[in-house]
């Protein structure tokens, strides 16, 4: 097996620690090393992710891996994009779940994290995602990063826990 690493980034709420561990655990047999990041604000009882702190953590934990894939959900997708743009990591491929681009638009005006992205990415998004606006996300991805592969799922939640459902498409995409 070639040397492959996976970086797993979850959403902003503490319940995403389970998603990070479940995702990493589900796909670990296909990777030599799994980096599962738990955010500091979860243990401090804060509601909002500290992007600068988590970017530094990723830099120190992951380093410059040669064959890195990122699996990220929700705010973790924004963290991944910020890390890529800053040159902290240079993944070969990304798999994103439930990108909260409308929430991002309420905080930032700069869309270069998407428009300048040259890393191939597969984006899974529920058509009735309860947290990340489907239409806004699909339109922004199509407008700014049409090279990304956008997959519409049927669902009304922001969980993205059915790894078995995504596994084959992910395997084809990452190999």
Task: Walk me through the structure.
- This protein is α/β, with parallel strands linked by helices.
- The protein has a single domain, classed as Alpha/Beta hydrolase fold, catalytic domain (Rossmann fold).
- 42% of the residues lie in helices and 18% in strands.
- It has eight helices and six strands; from the N terminus they run βαβααβαβααβαβα.
- β1, α1 (16-27) and β2 form a beta-alpha-beta unit.
- The radius of gyration is 15 Å and the shape is globular.
- The model has no long low-confidence stretch (mean pLDDT 94).
Structural class: alpha/beta
Shape: globular
Architecture (CATH level 2) name: 3-Layer(aba) Sandwich
What's the count of strands? Answer: 6
Strand content: 15-25%
Write out the CATH superfamily name: Alpha/Beta hydrolase fold, catalytic domain
Contiguous runs where pLDDT drops below 50 for at least 5 residues: none
| CATH topology-level name | Rossmann fold
Distance between the termini: 11 Å
- List the secondary-structure elements in sequence, H or E: EHEHHEHEHHEHEH
| Cα-atom radius of gyration | 15 Å
> Major sheet: order of its strands?
2-1-3-4-5-6
The biggest beta sheet reads: 6 strands, parallel
| CATH C-level label | Alpha Beta
Number of helices: 8
Briefly say what this structure is.
The chain is α/β, with parallel strands linked by helices.
Q: What brief labels describe this structure?
A:
single chain; 175 residues; alpha/beta; Rossmann fold; 6-stranded parallel β-sheet; 8 helices; globular
Secondary structure: elements and pairs:
Elements: E1 5-9, H1 16-27, E2 33-37, H2 40-44, H3 51-62, E3 68-73, H4 75-85, E4 93-97, H5 101-107, H6 112-115, E5 121-126, H7 134-144, E6 149-153, H8 163-174
Parallel strand pairs: 1-2, 1-3, 3-4, 4-5, 5-6
């Amino acid at each position: 097996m070639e040397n492959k690493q996976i970086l797993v980034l979850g959403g902003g709420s503490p319940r995403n620690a389970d998603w990070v561990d479940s995702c990493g655990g589900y796909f670990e047999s296909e990777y030599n090393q799994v980096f599962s990041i738990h955010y500091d604000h979860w243990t401090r009882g804060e509601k909002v992710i500290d992007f600068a702190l988590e970017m530094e953590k990723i830099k120190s934990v992951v380093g410059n891996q040669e064959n890195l894939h990122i699996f990220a959900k929700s705010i973790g997708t924004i963290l991944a994009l910020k890390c890529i743009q800053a040159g902290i990591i240079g993944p070969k491929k990304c798999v994103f779940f439930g990108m909260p681009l409308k929430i991002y638009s309420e905080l930032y005006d700069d869309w270069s994290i998407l428009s300048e992205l040259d890393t191939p990415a597969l984006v899974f998004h529920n058509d009735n995602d309860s947290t990340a606006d489907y239409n806004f996300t699909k339109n922004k991805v199509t407008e700014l990063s049409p090279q990304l592969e956008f997959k519409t799922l049927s669902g009304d939640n922001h969980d993205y826990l059915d790894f078995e459902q995504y596994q084959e498409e992910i395997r084809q995409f990452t190999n």
